[in-house]
Each structure stands twice: as C-alpha cells, then as structure tokens.
Amino acid sequence: MPNQIDAFKKRTGVIRIVGHRGARGVFPENTMLGFEYALASGVPLLEFDVVLTADDIPVITHNPTLHKQTFRDQTGQFISKELPIRSLSFADLGRYEVGKIDGTTAYGAAFPDQAQVAGLRVPALAELCALVKHPRHHAAHLLLELKSDPRLIDMRAHFVAQVLRVIRDHEVVGQTVLHSFDWEILAECKAQAPDIPTSFLSIASEPEFNLPDDLPAHIKAAGGALWCPHFRDITAEDVAYAQTMGLGVVVWTVNTIPDIDRMIDFGVDAICSDYPGRVQRRLSDRGLLWE
To answer: CA-to-CA distance for 116 and 119, rounded, in angstroms?
Structure first.
C-alpha cells in the first residue's frame, strides 16, 4: 500500500478527518488562511481544487471560472462576470480578492459562520506545497482535486503534467493523492505518475457521470486507491464491500452532527467536512481519534 494512502485509512480507534477546501464553514475556502487553520487545529488532511491559469500556473480555486459569490474586483464589489481562469494570467487573477462571501446569495447564506477576511488572494498550488513541506507539517497530506473543464478536454495531459511538475519540484509526492470526478484525468495521472495514488470521486444524483453498477470494483480495476462518494449515496454495506477490496472510503461533504454520526457508524475511513472541528468533537465524544 502506498504510504500516501495510509494517512487516509482508518485503523482501530481512528477515523480520519479531511478539511474540505481547507475549512469552508469557518474560513474562506481554498485560501492559505483556511489551510493553515485546518493544520493548526490538528487536521492534517486537506482537500482542495486545482485549475490552470493562462500562463500554466496551477492555482487553488473550486471552479474553472471566477466565482461570483466569492470573487471581488478592485473596487471591492462581487463580480458580475465569471471569466474562465484559463483566460487569466496568475498576475491577472491576483487582482481579485477571495476572502469574503456574498451573504445575499444562497451560496453565501449556507455558510453564515465563515470569517470575512480582507486581502486574501487565490493561492498557487506551489504555496500550499511549500507550507506542507515544512517539518512541522510532516503529517500533512493533500487530496488534490484536478478540476475538469469541459472546454479543455484535449488538455488533460498538459494539465496533469503542470500539476505534477509543482508536486515534484516541491518534493511532496509522498504527501499527495490525486483526486477527480473526471476519471479520464485519473487515467492520465496513472500514466504520468504511477507512484502517486488516485482517488475516484462519485455522486449518484448527477446523471451525467453515468456511474457503473459495481462502482468499487470498477475503481479497483482502474487502479484507484480511494473511493470518495457523496455521503448520501452510500450504505454501511457499500462501505464494507469497498473496504474488502482494499479501497479506502472517504465520504464528502459531511457537515451536520447526525450525518457525521451516521458516517462514523458506517465505518468509513475518512470524513471530509467544511467543519472539521465538528467531526473532531463527535469522534472525541465517542472515544475515537483522528490523528
């Protein structure tokens, strides 16, 4: 088993916690501040999204386009036009702030406790790699989602190569798992980097993904090390079945106490949450650790 996967697999008395986009419920998503908070609070596993700028800089942001609910322009106003990230240089992208959320929108209303912080920018992947390379973060691991853009399907190999260049340059291969809904990107990852495990995201409620009937078996056959289903899509039997194949099961995005408890009862390997502190509390109350 690759060492990278050990960090995401449960063991006796331990269920892992993954900070979703850092800790989206608490600090602005996919920001260095959010990642630093998760690490400082004892959550060493970080999930986040990567896309490419026009000058081939892998950057950490959720959408292939600017996000109206979280991007503000130089006047301090939330943007009205969602430009493709691929159309902007890293310098262009740095003109936008991403430390606040528009509370007048449904998206913003979903995170009423998120801190509002001036001056935060979209980080380059290299910044996070440098952070987790520090000796004090030796336990940190990256669940790096390569964000597929339907307009750039023919660029999969190039995208993967640029991400791998940063990971290898910063010597964090042993702390990285490559993760995506786009399973063709994951096949490209396996071809270019057989030394880095892959994680297969799935969601049953979106028919465009056209999931196979025996999903864990399909993932195992494709060389996957982790299965990351939406938490509403699984049963305890699904979890046990996947684990008998050697797959780690990481569920996303689990935010309420009843759902956290249900996933603990299901015996998942790891829980990905916008509120990692809530998961810590439930595990602690139940006599479990997360490391």
So the answer is: 10
